[in-house]
Design goal:
The protein is α+β, with helices and mostly antiparallel strands. It has four helices and six strands, in the order βαββαβαββα. The chain has a six-stranded antiparallel sheet, sandwiched between helices. It is elongated and about 45 Å long.
């Protein structure tokens, strides 16, 4: 079974010093900011930096504003394949068949359940939603 949702990908800059990630996580915990995922740094995208997918985008925006932390935002799509039966690969074929280019992907499989975050060109988002639905 494949589940998906549109998410907001927040990109922020972290200094390359020991403790910066721990400081960010402490600040988010103190502000009760829950996250779905985080990774970085990621090179080769328009907004290079540390990525955060927050469970509540408005709350994360307020947190970043209060912390005077500059952020950029983009739309991404979180896809979960809990079947372990290859439905994700079939969906990738459908996306390609619709002429949609996946510009970037981050994925992880735990206990046979794959989760992936994908980015497409903004002009392809509505067609991607049709393919995923």
């Amino acid at each position: 079974m494949l589940q998906w949702m549109r998410v907001t990908d927040f990109v922020l800059r972290l200094s390359h010093r020991p403790g910066e990630l721990a400081r960010l996580c402490t600040q988010m915990r103190e502000a009760d900011v829950e996250i779905t995922g985080m990774w970085g740094p990621v090179l080769g995208r328009a907004s290079v930096g540390f990525h955060v997918i927050a469970q509540n985008p408005d709350q994360f925006r307020a947190f970043a504003c209060d912390a005077e932390m500059p952020i950029t935002e983009s739309t991404a799509f979180l896809i979960n394949d809990i079947s372990g039966g290859g439905s994700f690969v079939a969906r990738l074929d459908s996306i390609a068949g619709a002429g949609i280019n996946i510009e970037s992907i981050q994925s992880l499989t735990i206990d046979g359940s794959l989760s992936a975050v994908i980015w497409v060109n903004e002009s392809d988002e509505s067609r991607l939603i049709e393919v995923l639905s």
